[in-house]
Known about the structure:
- With 431 residues, the protein is of the alpha/beta class.
- It is 30% helix and 23% strand.
- Strands 4, 14, 15, 16, 17, 18, 19, 20 and 21 form a nine-stranded mixed sheet that branches. Strands 5, 6, 7, 8, 9, 10, 11, 12 and 13 form a nine-stranded parallel sheet that branches.
- Helix 2 (37-55) runs parallel beside helix 9, helix 5 (114-122) packs across helix 6 and helix 8 (216-236) packs parallel to helix 9.
- It starts with 5 loop residues before the first strand and ends in a 5-residue tail after the last helix.
Amino acid sequence: MLHKNLGINENNHLTFCGYDTVELAKEYGTPVYVMDEDLIRENCRIYKTALERNFGKGSMPLYASKAFSCKKIYEIAKDEGLGCDVVSGGELYIAYKSGFDMNNVFFHGNNKTEKDIEFAMNCKLGYFVVDNNEELTEINKQAGERNIKQKILLRITPGIDPHTHKAIVTGSVDSKFGSAIETGQAMAIVKHALSFSNVELCGLHCHIGSQIFECEPFTDAAEIMIKFIKQIKDETGYETKILNLGGGMGVRYIEEDPIIDYGKNIDTIAEKIKAYASNNGITMPTILMEPGRSLVAAAGITLYTVGSVKEIPGFKKYVSIDGGMPDNPRYALYQSIYTCFLANKAGDKADYTCTVAGRCCESGDLIAENTKIANPVRGDILSVLCTGAYNYSMASNYNKLPRPPVVMVSKNKKYIAVAKESYEDLIRNDL
Ligand SMILES: *Cc1c(COP(=O)(O)O)cnc(C)c1O
């Protein structure tokens, strides 16, 4: 099976974290997101222990909460001793409401508004990860009005292309994020930050992309960042205290993807970083990482019910489900590949090649093309695997489909973490 929390039981049904998924579909209706709390916690611990083992206390993972954001997940991250990163006032609000320690919250984004900054300061946000000069100036101004010294990191673009899909590559020079070292803009913003009296520059951040399976892109980025830290020290005397290496470790969406040992990867990356730091004669900064996908993706599946099965002779076969791009827009957005599975025929030979289509009035509303599943009929339960990241968090109400509920399961309990939207919810803001 794709992940260790999946299995097949005596009824030929797909199991997830030990639960019969056909029973879950019956109990909660479809579509439904199901999340494995045990696996989320296990992944949090792998990152946390690996970072502490290699870099000591203070070094910790920050959960990149845009991957999956609801009150419960912030509670879990907090409980496991993680910090978190947020990319909007909305995410910050949910973290705040869930009781997250604001000292360990990092606020990202390439265009924070005056209101975002004000709201974050009202919440006593720990760190802004400052993207640009305008934002830096505004943060300094608002901090000055409050008579505080706001802690910040600067987002730096190391110029690494991790060879993933173009739309999610963010570390190369022409990125909309951060300031590039290569163009001199990174050094300029460092000096700018050091010149302000109401911001405290605590360190640097980079995020090179997503769905990265190898260690090299991270060690390459770290090497560039360490050299830059040395250059900053030489030119200004400033010693960088925190180096945040971002997120981006890959997850296994299909059988062809490798299985990744995140702890071992961190060990490998750590060894190189320490060597770079010592070679450059700089004090090791506190290392932070921001995993999103790798904490929650494999901990989620989506269950749907099959409706129509349409065979167009000489062309294709469409299997339509009762959800689609509103609950998982990733195929429509950038052709992300998923593994589909008939949960009630889990052990049957998967030799029916088809396009899995959503129910929206949009030809591009597809979940998978040329995917192989068991022979489908109306009423079957179709599961899409590895949907814990960037599905619920990207969901919309397009075609006015209410968003599915999120059900959390673990060995000894199951509960609804996010309720299903109702038709009334769809008009709650309509005047
Ligand atoms: C998206 C993002 C992450 C998380 O990326 P994953 O691929 O989900 O691990 C971390 N940091 C920043 C700044 C991001 O934009």
